[in-house]
């Protein structure tokens, strides 16, 4: 869960690919401490992730929005 401009690659055919899955791991059990810990780059993290409420679809959309903003303006 570390979606940011640095981890997005635009292919010559126009396809967008996510790269750098350093934070992605297979978990042995759903209640793992890793699921409850904060992972990612602070600027692109949704407020609920920072406060410890966890990850979800909404937090991914937040990160994509931050990435699109950075790509459009050239600044985070």
From TrEMBL:
Keyword Transmembrane: no
All copies of domain Protein kinase, residue ranges: 1-76
One Pfam match: Pkinase
GO molecular function, one term: protein serine/threonine kinase activity
SUPFAM superfamilies associated with the record: Protein kinase-like (PK-like)
UniProt keyword list: ATP-binding, Kinase, Nucleotide-binding, Serine/threonine-protein kinase, Transferase
Source organism superkingdom: Eukaryota
The protein's name in its UniProt record: M3K19 kinase
Encoding gene per record: Map3k19
């Amino acid at each position: 869960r570390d979606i940011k401009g640095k981890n997005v690659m635009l292919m010559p055919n126009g396809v967008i690919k996510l790269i750098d899955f350093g934070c992605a791991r297979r978990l042995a059990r759903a209640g793992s401490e890793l699921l409850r810990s904060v992972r990612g780059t602070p600027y692109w993290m949704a407020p609920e992730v920072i406060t410890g409420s966890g990850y979800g679809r909404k937090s991914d959309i937040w990160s994509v929005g931050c990435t699109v903003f950075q790509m459009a303006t050239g600044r985070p």
